[in-house]
Amino acid sequence: MPTEAPKFPVLEHVEELRRRLGRCAIALVAGAIVSWGAVDLVLEWLKQPAGAWLPRLAFFSPPDALTAYLKIAVACGLVLSAPVWLHELWGFIAPGLTARERRYGRWFVWGGLSLFVGGVAFGYVVLLPVSLQFLLSFGQGRVEPVIALTNYVSFVTGLLLICGVLFQWPLLVAILARLGLVTAERMRRLWRQALVGMLIVAAIATPTTDITTMLLLVGPMLGLYELSIVLARVVARRRRVDV
What we know:
By secondary structure, the chain is mainly α. It folds into 2 domains: about 10-165, no CATH class; about 170-243, no CATH class. It has helices spanning about 10-35, 40-45, 65-80, 80-95, 100, 105-135, 150-165, 170-180, 185-190, 190-205, 210-240, and strands spanning about 55-60, 145-150. The chain is flat. It starts with 8 loop residues before the first helix and ends with a helix.
């Protein structure tokens, strides 16, 4: 009688992760291709936070302009494909949840997307203008800023994407609370350590050295931390009911 072949759940999970990452990559490339025709409009949109402080951009080697356009297209593709990679992330963790918990998949995807868009909007409306005006104000009237297009695009898109990712914090906490790894009470007790961590993250994430820009990022992070505590408490109650 033939024996049943052994199963390797770890390898199965790795293979599933590979497939899901492949679908995310395809969605990213598709989003970048779709965005290519609007790159000029996006570039003008990205220049607006600098205002009159940056009259023009320049490129210093033949491939620079193409590189900058590709960076913009990829960043747009990442934003457009956000529903896909959030859906794939939920699909990866959903098998470990109960049937009742899996019903929250739609809220996970659209909640994460809303937080991501909110983070990008905050970075564009609040953080970018302050950062750019602070940096470009040095040497005003004595030297003229001539900034490489690729450097500016990397600076702006990087800051916006960092804000979008940081705003995912409440979603991550909700998942960890559902798994029983964090509690609202513990988060409340560790708020001082959390504040220090936020200051460190803000200092690394913000491209400027002024305290104002760093505090502008810490403010919403504190709000997100408080929201995370509320979500952790709500999720813990639902978890006790399910048990």
